[in-house]
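Subject: Sanity check before I submit

Could someone independently write out the structure tokens for this chain? I want to compare against mine line by line before I put it in a report. The sequence has 1103 residues.
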Amino acid sequence: MAATRGKPGVTPIHIHGHHKLNWNEVGIEAINHWKLCLLSLLLSMTSTPGLTEIEKSRDDEVLRGVTKRSPARHELEHENSSFGTPYRVLVNCHLGLLITTYYPCLFKKPPRSPVSPDHGGTITPHLYTRGGSPHPLPISAKLSRDHYTNTSNIISATRVKFFGALTIIIKLNNESSSLTSDDAVELLLVLIGWYLDSLRNGTGPLVIRKLSSALATFFLHFHRVWRRFTHHLCLCLASNQPLRPDALDDAPESSTLIESLDSAQTQAALWVLSNVLEDIAKFDLNSASNMGLYDAILENVPAAVALMSRGMSPQSTSQAAHQDSIKCLQSWVWFAQRASSRDTRLSEPIGPLVTAVISSLTVDELYDASVELMVDLLSNCSMFLTDAHIENLAELFDSSWFQNRYQALMQGDFDFDSVQFGQLLLAFGDAKVDKLMQLNDRRSQNLLSNLCGLLAAQGYPVAEDKIFVPALEFWSTYAETMTDAMYSDEGAANTWVPQALSHVLQAVSNAWQKVVYPPHDEFVSWDSNERIGFNDARKDVIDLLQSVYSLAGPQLVVTFADLVLKALSSSSWLQLEAAAFCLGGLADCVGEDTRCDGALASVFTSPLFSALRPGQADIPPKARQTCVALIEHYTEYFERNISHLPPALNLLFVVVGEHPMASAAAKSIYRLCSSCRGHLHTEADGFLNEYQNLVSRGRLDCGASEKISGGIASVIQAIPDSNLRYTSCARLLGFVQADVQRSLELLHSPDSGVTPCFVAPTCSYAASDESPALHTALKALRCLASIGRGLQAPDVSVDLDGEQARASKADPQLSHLQESIMTMIGQVQGAFNTSGEVVEIICTVLRSGFSEVEPGPFVLPPHSVAQYLTNQGLETPRVGLLVSTACSFVSSLEHDGLQSQHAMLNSVLLWVVGLLKQLPNPEADPELSQNGIEFVTRLLSKSPVILLRLEPQNAAEFFFLFTLQVLDGKEPLPKASAAVFWAVFVDLKCDSQELNDIAQQAMQMLGPLLSQSLARNIGGNASRSELDKLSEPLKKLVVRCPMAKSWLEAGLTHESFPSTRITHQEKSMFLKKIISLRGARATNQVVREFWLSAKGSSFAYAS
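---
Independent answer below. Compare away.
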């Protein structure tokens, strides 16, 4: 390359007739990587697969049509004559190929692939990789500044210029460090020259915007060279020529220059400023390489504000420039908010601009940009708003313009600009909610009334009304703010509360009426997103009601109880559903508040239950479901009012057999039985008889059976006499046993005609690919698991450190129940041994007894559980979940003490290690690897002797090496578990010196290996999110092991250390810091910094 420097055939390149860039003067070695980028790119395409001779001929013809009058073409050919004769053909061919290939995807629609099938798959990779190649860009310069003389050529040139500008941006972002300051100034002159030419010649907006982006990118990388970029760019625009940055020394003030710009020039400067403010978000302003960038922005504040002010001057600029000024101001706000929200140097100067934007709201052509900015300022950037701005907005909201806009919105105009108007009103209310609720002046009260009115606009929420949900959010905020204000100073007079509360209650009145369902035919005609959105809006109304309850109290319950009764008496079923829905939503607030019992009694003793019975009234299914769900919501009420329980339960057992009602009724039965078990246990036989009747008539689907069986189990659990309790349990388990037998029959005789469950129209648990046999087996297991949960004792305080809680006396009846449960589990798993769902539910069944301290059917004998677990092999689906169950099993044994369970736990540990041994690698089954490590960690922390004295010893050795292998792996969850294991093991402190000696001997062998693994991870192999977990064993190592320093030093210098960016001195400094911190929390930060150095600065988070 050096030989080219003095080549006599090389001539200067003329830029706009103002400057010459002489290759001999600049030096190809210094600037070469920035001078022939696109040329190299085009030459590299000579081997593009799929480019036939016919295509080359066609593209050559295309290029001749494009460039035959281009004055730059001769210059290019002359300048690059050293490349030989083929050069012209190659440039012609590939420039045409660029145009014809990229035009469809870049200028018509977003590309799925920027390469047409005819031209192979390698052109785009060439373009973008060559854009980052070590070759520079005079062809980019020429392609971006050539003058074409006819319309079609201008269009083609525009496409090529776009790529020239894009290439420069890529080079600036990737290789700006290769340019000296002088080189950078020369490049700036080129860029400004292109920009001015494009503006003069009417180049398409895509190219002009891309060039403005290139200028912004230049500033961000070379802010020291182009410090006052706004002032300088305006100078160049005013003089219509590219000038060096030092020309500002003799230039007029920025305000004077800006006043001389016309609308187009003002827009051109605004585009560059906007790009700077938007792109700076990609830069870390705290990094050393960007030092001074923030200060450079501050230095541009006066010129930038003057420029935006000029653009907003209606007398001297166009509406397009005005819109661009507002958009630029929005970019300014975003930057100021991200960079330093407390820096008034960025916020105070734009006050007059914000005032101008408020005035622009009433101008139709400027409305969109203005309203977007004002909503943003009110919602996120209130620091930019002064009291004067707020007053200006308040006056605007009291004008005829506001009334016209508001009425259009209320009458159902939900076009984008109308919804933006509503957002503006809500943003203002949200920003001033503290003052609005306490002010009693006419303007404030009118504004609150208008905000309340937004909840009453025409149309159904979401499907039609687009402002309802944002308005709900405002009123929820209003209610919460009002609550805080009322209770923050309880001694204050708070004379404003009644008026403020009246607005809240009116908002509630508007809101509940808006969530009345439409007629069924209309609702099903909506698309799925509209239906989901409407239902979500109903949930938002409940959130509002719950917030208002803290203000209005029982009055709110009384209101909706009255609405329920009113709708019931008038047979307004849709209104009945909405009122019952809202009343149910208040249940969590009512809880044990007896002040609401009178209002609730008026509902539950009304004709409502009679009307809900089959055949009594033509109530739509949705309304019946919602009313039945009221019973479930108010279970605490029924606990307080036992006399109202029988009619409620009678109703539930009547309607649970109807498919539309099954789910709501079954849930209510479960909740009532669970909550009121102490009052219902004498009725256990009656519940079993009702259940028997429903089952025999085939009226229940799987979901209903699961909930009812669980509810009845709750009632049985409360029976004081153990014999009666176990007898009832046996009867309830008989239903499950019948389902198990039915599933086995269906498995062996699929055509037996036995239906798995009530499936009209479909079972809630039905799956399309599920056989009737498996469906029935899963139903049996779900019911079994539900019974296990129901039999769990209510939450009580248990002294785990006291005497053994469980009775040791054997009970034959209890043993029989436990055996039958294990038998059912074994039968189902044996018959359906490929189903992971079967294993998942079995694990739930087993866990249901682990937390119990009293004997019970599901408090299974430990040896039975251990035997079941150890019989499972690697071929068992979800075997990792069974290992997780073993973790819980170990914890459950603490009730009786682990001392007597060593032999059993030894067998379970060997089973777990055996499963891990069978894996081809730890990542073959991440769930098993993770849960296997967690099991051993749990066992180690509770009884270290079992692992330290494990026989055979090679099992323990395998496990230690396995965890190290996992620690070096890529699976995040097993890796985290391995890190926890090593933190526990390194920090292990045993009761006996003998065990401590065994642990220390193990660490002598494992310590160096662990240190190597940690070094590899911290040296770049780990992901960022894993560093805190990996820091834990590192800290324990430093604190507990005297050899830690030498082990870690060996690990950091080992050949397996992954990063080449870290010097020996940096490793030594890191080790010194780690050792000196002695396991302190600051170790985590040191580890993160070391990891970042190993990975490279591209992995740093931008601030």
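---
OP: Matches mine. For the report I'm noting this point. Confidence is low (pLDDT under 50) at residues 1-152, 797-808.
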